[in-house]
Amino acid sequence: MNETSSPPNVFVVLPAYNERAGIGALLDGLAETMQEAGLPYRAVVVDDGSTDGTWEVLTERTRQMPAELHRHVTNLGLGLTIRDGLLAASQIAGEKDVLVTMDADGTHSPRLILSMVELISRGYDVVIASRYRRGAGVTGVALHRQVLSLGASWLFRAFFPTAGVRDYTSGYRAYRGAVVKKAFSTFGDRFVEAEGFACMADILLKVRRLGASFTEVPLELRYDLKRGSSKMRLVRTVGQTLSLLVRRRLGF
Residue 127 belongs to what H/E stretch? Predict the structure, then answer.
Protein backbone atom coordinates (compact mmCIF):
# COMPACT_ATOMS: atom_id res chain seq x y z
CA MET A 1 0.00 0.00 0.00
CA ASN A 2 1.30 3.46 -0.87
CA GLU A 3 2.48 4.97 2.38
CA THR A 4 1.97 8.53 1.10
CA SER A 5 -1.75 8.04 0.57
CA SER A 6 -4.42 7.47 3.15
CA PRO A 7 -5.72 3.91 3.44
CA PRO A 8 -9.04 3.06 1.84
CA ASN A 9 -12.18 2.58 3.86
CA VAL A 10 -13.07 -1.09 4.10
CA PHE A 11 -16.74 -2.10 4.10
CA VAL A 12 -17.23 -5.71 5.20
CA VAL A 13 -20.53 -7.16 3.99
CA LEU A 14 -21.78 -10.01 6.18
CA PRO A 15 -24.89 -11.98 5.18
CA ALA A 16 -26.22 -13.58 8.35
CA TYR A 17 -28.90 -16.23 8.80
CA ASN A 18 -29.20 -17.92 12.19
CA GLU A 19 -25.58 -17.17 13.13
CA ARG A 20 -26.09 -16.35 16.80
CA ALA A 21 -23.48 -18.90 17.88
CA GLY A 22 -20.60 -17.36 15.95
CA ILE A 23 -21.39 -13.85 14.72
CA GLY A 24 -20.19 -12.15 17.91
CA ALA A 25 -16.74 -13.76 17.80
CA LEU A 26 -16.40 -12.90 14.11
CA LEU A 27 -17.23 -9.25 14.72
CA ASP A 28 -14.71 -9.16 17.58
CA GLY A 29 -12.04 -10.65 15.30
CA LEU A 30 -12.88 -8.18 12.55
CA ALA A 31 -12.63 -5.20 14.89
CA GLU A 32 -9.30 -6.41 16.31
CA THR A 33 -7.82 -7.02 12.85
CA MET A 34 -8.84 -3.65 11.44
CA GLN A 35 -7.72 -1.72 14.51
CA GLU A 36 -4.31 -3.40 14.58
CA ALA A 37 -3.81 -2.62 10.89
CA GLY A 38 -5.03 0.95 11.25
CA LEU A 39 -7.63 0.51 8.54
CA PRO A 40 -10.86 2.48 8.72
CA TYR A 41 -13.75 0.07 8.34
CA ARG A 42 -17.46 -0.53 8.72
CA ALA A 43 -19.33 -3.80 9.03
CA VAL A 44 -22.45 -3.93 6.86
CA VAL A 45 -24.53 -6.80 8.21
CA VAL A 46 -27.74 -8.07 6.64
CA ASP A 47 -29.77 -10.37 8.88
CA ASP A 48 -31.77 -12.58 6.53
CA GLY A 49 -34.80 -13.28 8.69
CA SER A 50 -32.96 -15.09 11.48
CA THR A 51 -35.08 -16.79 14.12
CA ASP A 52 -32.39 -17.80 16.64
CA GLY A 53 -31.60 -14.44 18.24
CA THR A 54 -28.97 -13.32 15.71
CA TRP A 55 -30.53 -9.85 15.45
CA GLU A 56 -30.34 -9.33 19.21
CA VAL A 57 -26.66 -10.32 19.25
CA LEU A 58 -25.96 -7.95 16.36
CA THR A 59 -27.68 -4.96 17.92
CA GLU A 60 -25.77 -5.50 21.15
CA ARG A 61 -22.33 -6.30 19.67
CA THR A 62 -22.25 -3.50 17.09
CA ARG A 63 -22.85 -0.73 19.61
CA GLN A 64 -19.10 -0.61 20.17
CA MET A 65 -17.89 -0.76 16.57
CA PRO A 66 -18.59 1.02 13.27
CA ALA A 67 -21.46 -0.93 11.77
CA GLU A 68 -24.61 -0.65 9.72
CA LEU A 69 -27.39 -3.18 10.25
CA HIS A 70 -30.10 -4.23 7.82
CA ARG A 71 -32.81 -6.79 8.35
CA HIS A 72 -35.04 -8.95 6.16
CA VAL A 73 -38.28 -9.66 7.97
CA THR A 74 -38.43 -13.08 6.31
CA ASN A 75 -35.68 -15.30 4.91
CA LEU A 76 -34.98 -14.30 1.28
CA GLY A 77 -31.90 -16.40 0.62
CA LEU A 78 -28.20 -15.72 0.16
CA GLY A 79 -28.44 -14.13 -3.30
CA LEU A 80 -30.75 -11.28 -2.27
CA THR A 81 -28.92 -10.87 1.03
CA ILE A 82 -25.53 -10.45 -0.67
CA ARG A 83 -27.13 -8.08 -3.18
CA ASP A 84 -28.68 -5.90 -0.47
CA GLY A 85 -25.43 -5.82 1.50
CA LEU A 86 -23.32 -4.86 -1.51
CA LEU A 87 -25.86 -2.23 -2.54
CA ALA A 88 -25.90 -0.67 0.93
CA ALA A 89 -22.10 -0.65 1.09
CA SER A 90 -21.70 0.76 -2.42
CA GLN A 91 -24.00 3.66 -1.58
CA ILE A 92 -21.72 4.87 1.22
CA ALA A 93 -18.34 3.77 -0.18
CA GLY A 94 -16.10 5.79 -2.45
CA GLU A 95 -14.74 4.48 -5.75
CA LYS A 96 -11.32 3.83 -4.20
CA ASP A 97 -12.70 2.10 -1.12
CA VAL A 98 -12.79 -1.67 -0.72
CA LEU A 99 -15.92 -3.81 -0.32
CA VAL A 100 -15.40 -7.26 1.19
CA THR A 101 -17.89 -10.13 1.31
CA MET A 102 -17.27 -12.99 3.71
CA ASP A 103 -19.19 -15.68 5.54
CA ALA A 104 -20.55 -14.89 8.99
CA ASP A 105 -20.07 -18.38 10.44
CA GLY A 106 -16.42 -18.15 11.53
CA THR A 107 -14.96 -20.23 8.68
CA HIS A 108 -13.20 -17.20 7.12
CA SER A 109 -10.41 -15.43 9.01
CA PRO A 110 -10.71 -11.62 8.97
CA ARG A 111 -6.91 -11.35 8.83
CA LEU A 112 -6.93 -12.28 5.15
CA ILE A 113 -8.66 -8.95 4.46
CA LEU A 114 -5.32 -7.19 4.91
CA SER A 115 -3.71 -9.04 1.99
CA MET A 116 -6.78 -8.50 -0.15
CA VAL A 117 -6.85 -4.75 0.51
CA GLU A 118 -3.15 -4.57 -0.35
CA LEU A 119 -3.77 -6.19 -3.74
CA ILE A 120 -6.67 -3.85 -4.47
CA SER A 121 -4.32 -0.94 -3.71
CA ARG A 122 -1.90 -2.34 -6.30
CA GLY A 123 -4.51 -2.03 -9.03
CA TYR A 124 -6.64 -5.19 -9.05
CA ASP A 125 -10.40 -4.77 -9.13
CA VAL A 126 -11.37 -8.08 -7.49
CA VAL A 127 -9.39 -10.28 -5.11
CA ILE A 128 -10.72 -13.77 -4.39
CA ALA A 129 -9.84 -15.88 -1.35
CA SER A 130 -9.25 -19.10 -3.27
CA ARG A 131 -9.26 -22.76 -2.26
CA TYR A 132 -7.21 -23.62 -5.36
CA ARG A 133 -3.96 -21.71 -4.89
CA ARG A 134 -0.70 -22.94 -3.40
CA GLY A 135 -0.85 -22.42 0.35
CA ALA A 136 -4.62 -22.87 0.57
CA GLY A 137 -6.17 -25.45 2.85
CA VAL A 138 -9.57 -26.90 3.67
CA THR A 139 -10.33 -28.39 7.08
CA GLY A 140 -13.56 -30.05 8.14
CA VAL A 141 -15.29 -30.21 4.74
CA ALA A 142 -16.58 -33.60 3.60
CA LEU A 143 -14.66 -35.13 0.71
CA HIS A 144 -17.68 -35.30 -1.62
CA ARG A 145 -18.29 -31.59 -1.15
CA GLN A 146 -14.66 -30.83 -1.94
CA VAL A 147 -14.89 -32.91 -5.11
CA LEU A 148 -18.07 -31.15 -6.23
CA SER A 149 -16.54 -27.71 -5.57
CA LEU A 150 -13.44 -28.63 -7.54
CA GLY A 151 -15.62 -29.91 -10.37
CA ALA A 152 -17.46 -26.59 -10.47
CA SER A 153 -14.11 -24.80 -10.65
CA TRP A 154 -13.03 -26.90 -13.64
CA LEU A 155 -16.32 -26.31 -15.47
CA PHE A 156 -16.23 -22.55 -15.02
CA ARG A 157 -12.57 -22.42 -16.02
CA ALA A 158 -13.41 -24.40 -19.15
CA PHE A 159 -16.42 -22.34 -20.24
CA PHE A 160 -15.52 -18.93 -18.79
CA PRO A 161 -11.71 -18.78 -18.60
CA THR A 162 -10.76 -15.67 -16.66
CA ALA A 163 -7.21 -14.47 -16.05
CA GLY A 164 -6.30 -14.76 -12.37
CA VAL A 165 -9.32 -16.85 -11.36
CA ARG A 166 -9.53 -20.48 -10.28
CA ASP A 167 -12.19 -20.28 -7.56
CA TYR A 168 -15.43 -18.99 -9.09
CA THR A 169 -17.69 -19.77 -6.14
CA SER A 170 -15.79 -18.53 -3.08
CA GLY A 171 -17.86 -16.18 -0.95
CA TYR A 172 -14.78 -14.43 0.45
CA ARG A 173 -13.79 -11.60 -1.89
CA ALA A 174 -12.68 -7.98 -2.01
CA TYR A 175 -13.90 -5.54 -4.66
CA ARG A 176 -12.80 -2.07 -5.63
CA GLY A 177 -15.68 0.29 -4.84
CA ALA A 178 -15.77 1.60 -8.40
CA VAL A 179 -16.41 -1.90 -9.78
CA VAL A 180 -19.42 -2.56 -7.55
CA LYS A 181 -20.86 0.87 -8.26
CA LYS A 182 -20.49 0.29 -12.01
CA ALA A 183 -22.10 -3.14 -11.71
CA PHE A 184 -25.21 -1.75 -10.01
CA SER A 185 -25.34 1.10 -12.50
CA THR A 186 -25.09 -1.35 -15.41
CA PHE A 187 -27.24 -4.26 -14.20
CA GLY A 188 -29.44 -2.77 -11.48
CA ASP A 189 -31.17 -5.46 -9.41
CA ARG A 190 -30.04 -8.03 -12.00
CA PHE A 191 -26.47 -7.67 -10.75
CA VAL A 192 -27.23 -10.60 -8.44
CA GLU A 193 -29.89 -12.84 -10.00
CA ALA A 194 -28.85 -16.35 -9.00
CA GLU A 195 -30.23 -17.90 -5.84
CA GLY A 196 -28.32 -19.58 -3.04
CA PHE A 197 -24.59 -20.15 -3.16
CA ALA A 198 -24.59 -19.87 -6.97
CA CYS A 199 -24.87 -16.11 -6.49
CA MET A 200 -21.09 -15.79 -6.08
CA ALA A 201 -20.44 -17.23 -9.54
CA ASP A 202 -23.18 -14.95 -10.89
CA ILE A 203 -21.48 -11.88 -9.42
CA LEU A 204 -18.11 -12.91 -10.81
CA LEU A 205 -19.46 -13.41 -14.32
CA LYS A 206 -21.17 -10.00 -14.20
CA VAL A 207 -18.07 -8.04 -13.16
CA ARG A 208 -16.07 -10.08 -15.67
CA ARG A 209 -18.27 -8.58 -18.40
CA LEU A 210 -17.29 -5.12 -17.16
CA GLY A 211 -13.61 -5.82 -17.82
CA ALA A 212 -12.56 -6.14 -14.17
CA SER A 213 -9.08 -7.45 -13.33
CA PHE A 214 -8.81 -10.41 -10.95
CA THR A 215 -6.29 -12.06 -8.70
CA GLU A 216 -6.43 -14.55 -5.84
CA VAL A 217 -4.94 -15.19 -2.42
CA PRO A 218 -4.82 -18.65 -0.82
CA LEU A 219 -7.71 -19.33 1.56
CA GLU A 220 -7.48 -21.50 4.63
CA LEU A 221 -11.09 -22.58 4.98
CA ARG A 222 -11.71 -23.71 8.58
CA TYR A 223 -15.06 -25.47 8.41
CA ASP A 224 -14.18 -27.19 11.67
CA LEU A 225 -14.59 -23.81 13.38
CA LYS A 226 -18.10 -23.35 12.06
CA ARG A 227 -20.67 -22.78 14.76
CA GLY A 228 -24.20 -23.85 13.98
CA SER A 229 -25.56 -25.99 11.16
CA SER A 230 -24.72 -25.63 7.48
CA LYS A 231 -27.09 -23.55 5.35
CA MET A 232 -26.01 -25.26 2.12
CA ARG A 233 -28.37 -27.75 0.53
CA LEU A 234 -25.97 -29.73 -1.62
CA VAL A 235 -28.27 -31.02 -4.36
CA ARG A 236 -30.00 -27.66 -4.72
CA THR A 237 -26.67 -25.81 -4.83
CA VAL A 238 -25.28 -28.12 -7.54
CA GLY A 239 -28.45 -27.67 -9.59
CA GLN A 240 -28.43 -23.89 -9.22
CA THR A 241 -24.75 -23.66 -10.14
CA LEU A 242 -25.08 -25.88 -13.23
CA SER A 243 -28.19 -23.99 -14.31
CA LEU A 244 -26.33 -20.69 -14.01
CA LEU A 245 -23.39 -22.01 -16.01
CA VAL A 246 -25.63 -23.24 -18.84
CA ARG A 247 -27.74 -20.07 -18.95
CA ARG A 248 -24.73 -17.76 -19.02
CA ARG A 249 -22.98 -19.93 -21.61
CA LEU A 250 -26.05 -19.69 -23.84
CA GLY A 251 -26.16 -15.93 -23.32
CA PHE A 252 -29.21 -15.76 -21.06
Answer: strand 126-130
How far is C-alpha 198 from the chain's CA centre?
Answer: 12
Angstrom CA distances, 59 to 30, 62, 68, 186, 209, stand at: 16, 6, 10, 34, 38
Please tell me the distance from the alpha carbon of residue 83 to that of residue 76, in angstroms, as a whole number.
11
Query: How many CB atoms within 10 Å of residue 166?
Result: 19
What is the reported pTM? Answer: 0.87
Sequence spans of domains, the chain: 10-249
CA neighbor of 61 nearest in space, from 96, 101, 26: 26
Task: Note the pLDDT tens digit of each residue in 56-87.
Answer: 999 999 998 999 999 999 999 999 999 999 99
Burial of 38 (0-12, 13-18, 19+ CB in 10 A): exposed
- 238 vs 213: CA distance, rounded Å: 27
Q: What class is the 10-249 domain?
A: alpha beta
pLDDT in tens, 71-130: 999 999 999 999 999 999 999 999 999 999 999 988 899 999 999 999 999 999 999 999
